[in-house]
Every structure is written in C-alpha cells, then in structure tokens.
Amino acid sequence: MTDVSTTTTYALEASGVGRAFGSVRAVVNASLAVKPGSVTALIGPNGCGKTTLMLMLAGLLKPDGGTIHVGGVSPLEHPKAARTDVGWMPDVLGTWESLTCLETLETFGRAYGASAADAKTNGFALLQRVHLAELATQPARVLSRGQKQRLSLARALVHDPSVLILDEPASGLDPRSRVELRDLVRQLAADGKAVLVSSHVLAELDEMVDDAVFMSKGVTLGDIADAEVARARTRWRVVAIEGDLAAALAEAKRDFMIEMPDAKLSPSSTSALVSVAGDADAADLLAALVGAKVRVARVAPVGSALEQAYLTMETERR
Fold it and tell me: What DSSP designation does 139 have?
C-alpha cells in the first residue's frame, strides 16, 4: 500500500481553512493543530462556525480554501485514507431507529471492513465501554438523548481511529454520565488518540482538555485566546476568617510580586482576588499569609479559566 502521509508531529492540522454557503461565510479563516495523545477544546458561541469546521476536518465537507491533514494525509487528495483515520461524533446520533444498539455498531463495523464476527465482538465491547451493554438488543428509538450520545461515541470508535472529532458529546448527559465521558475521553487520549471536542460546558472542559482553540465569527483566535486563557489561570481567590488580610497581601505583593486586582482592600476585608503565576506561587502566598497570622479558609483558582477567557473575549469582540 502506498504511503500517502507527510511527516508531522500533529495528528490533526488545519491552516487557513474557509467555507461559505452562498453569500454566508460560515468559516472565514480557521487554523488548529492537535497532537496525538492530547485533548483540544474547540470553543465559541452558536453560529461561529465550529460544526462547519469539524465537518471539514472529518472529511465530510469540502473547504473552499486552506489545508487540512489527518495523520499527515489530506482528505482532499486521499479521502478514504483520511476518513479511515477519523472517528466523527455529530451532535445528533442520526442512525436507523429500528436497529438495535449492537446492530448499529455491527453495521458500521462491517462498513469499515470488519468481519461479521469481529464487528459483533467489537460492537459489544464498545457498548460495555460506554455503559450501554444492557441495552444491546434494544432499538435506538427507545434510547434517551444521553444514551444516544453514548451510542454515537461508541459508533465513532468502531474502526479504532487515531483521531476523534466530538461535537457536543456531553449534550443531554446526566451528571454521572458527564463524569464518565470525561474519564473516557482522557483514557482515549492516554491510548494515544488525538481528540478535538466542542462543548458549551466550559467548566467541564477545563478538567478534560490539554489545550483550547477559540472561534468567533468564523475565525480562530490563536495567540490572542492563548494569552487570555493564560491570564485567566493566574486568578485566585483568597478568603480569610480572621486577621488583617489587606496588610498581609500588601506585604506579599512586595515579596512575591503578586498582582492585586482588588487594590482597594479595607482592613476588614475577608476576601480578595489576586493574580499568581501558578501553584508554587500560590503555595508561597498561603505560607506568607499564615505567617502573618491570617487565618485562611480558602485559596483557590477563580472558576473555570476557559469560561473566564471566553466571557472576556466575547465581551471585547461585541
């Protein structure tokens, strides 16, 4: 078999990709790169072009311009080879309602060239992995929205692709299933797969992903977004129950070069927002506050860094 790949450190790459539907430019200029063994979030408001970009990356929609490579292979030049390497999970299952869960996976396994026996064995193993084994013989029409999402993820895995593209995989999942999804995605990355995932549940993405790509109005934001996420990760909240927090923080500012967005703290303040470079500096700050006889109840990051960065950028771009 002829090797159609090019040498690359990325499992999934896009550069300068665009796509229009008539006069509507859904994707204007999108670029991203996902390494093997990593999870990257694709974040943006509804209508910004995320799903259109994902369809192009999955080889299901032809871009008007730019380049895409999956495992070093161009979907435009070698569509079959590229699609074989991609597992695509749309935001809606879209399968035959009369087929059972196992039959759905068997059908897609056979489509990718597996024997009937292997497709059945692998299909049931995947149902076990996504916690649907007890519904193996049930038709897809009886599944809840969350169960259909899990079946859709299993379907994306039937051919053991090296790249997974997941569009809103947590939609409709209950809290326990969301945790299981997060753990499964991390396991898949640990197995060496490159995962690109879009979601509006940014707090959960914070615990799932290694990197993030932000989109707005059909454009990926690149370094601007990276800088905003890095800034968001420095924000920590200090809460005290006793002691002069304001004075202790003023001294810590001189000693540890912390920043204090809450600059006008009164001696009676019991809470403050500070900026520290990372966990080590946060630990030093806590030690300094305790040394200054401040009884600290909590020192923790302020919410989701991805959520903070998203809200800041959306506000600035309106």
Answer: B
Residue 1 has pLDDT above 50, yes or no: no
Q: Alpha helix locations (H) across the chain?
A: 50-57, 79-84, 101-111, 116-129, 145-156, 175-190, 202-208, 223-232, 245-256, 279-291, 305-317
27-52 confidence digits (pLDDT tens)? 999 999 999 999 999 988 888 999 99
Alpha-carbon span 310 to 315, nearest angstrom: 9
In a domain, 5, yes or no: no
Task: Identify whether residues 73 and 160 lie together within a single domain.
Answer: yes
pLDDT at 125: 97
Range of the domain at 180: 12-221
The model's pLDDT over 282-303, given as tens digits with 9 standing for 90+, comes to 888 888 899 999 999 988 877 6
Q: How far apart are CA 311 and CA 313, in angstroms?
A: 6
pTM over 0.70: yes
Burial class (CB within 10 angstroms; exposed 0-12, middle 13-18, buried 19+) of 56: buried
Instruction: Please count the structural domains in the chain.
Output: 2
Closest CA to 30 of 73, 65, 4, 74: 65
CATH assignment at residue 284: 3.30.70
* Cβ contact 12:57 at 8 Å: yes
Which residue shows structure tokens 């970009």?
Answer: 53
Residues 59 and 82 both lie in one domain: yes
